[in-house]
Amino acid sequence: MSENHSQSVWMGLSFLAVGLMGGILFTNGGQGFANLFDGSQATDDSVEEAAPDVDPDSLETVAVSVDDDAVMGDPDAPVTIVEFSDFQCPYCEKFYTETLPLIKENYIDTGKVKLIYRDLPLPSHDKADDAAEAAECFAEAGGDYYAYHDWLFENVAAWANEDVTGSLIAGAQELGFDISACLENGDMQDEVNADYTAGKSYGVTGTPSFFINGKKLVGAWPYDVFESVIESQL
Ligand SMILES: [Ca+2]
Ligand SMILES: [Ca+2]
Known about the structure:
Layout: H1 3-26, E1 34-35, E2 71-72, E3 79-85, H2 90-108, E4 113-119, H3 128-140, H4 145-154, H5 156-159, H6 164-174, H7 180-185, H8 189-201, E5 206-207, E6 209-212, E7 215-218, H9 223-231
Parallel strand pairs: 3-4
Antiparallel strand pairs: 1-5, 2-4, 3-6, 6-7
Bound molecules: calcium ion (2 copies).
One calcium ion binds next to strand 4 and helix 8.
């Protein structure tokens, strides 16, 4: 078997596995991810509900840069989670609301894990790019990137509207920083675009996607799955 042939077989199997995982995810209470290309969410109910069971050793490992993006937690933590995400994506919000608090309490606040949020605003979410730029502007203005990140996920309805620029500026103002010039001038466009391009180069096709010490986990999986992958790295 030629190398190319075996590679294409492997890729075919990977896609099959991803499809099965998607089916399990979506029959398992709505964990999942938004697709990069059309923003639709799979609704395949053909796979029986099953307890999520991900073998950390089976995950693809990718060398992923943390780039210049803000770090949540101890910069020297032994485990690094790079998240590619979108502030307007419901599954990203689900991860933020249901899973991140547990990761934070058990691993980030204890110095074992640091998380780096990188931008992958999906074209199908028409306000996500503005939000990504606003968060970078907030940090550039001296604010805590993750304070604004939290505000974005907790107040989507307040900014994903017709006056998105004004709403994002007002949100930053509430937290004590003026991002108006930065946002209106598009100062952070290049930064957000660079993250997006990097994400695609790592094979990210939907959000949220995570790299846990490089191990690729796609979708808003339950906390137990993150725990098992993190533990495999400690
Ligand atoms: Ca970046
Ligand atoms: Ca970024």
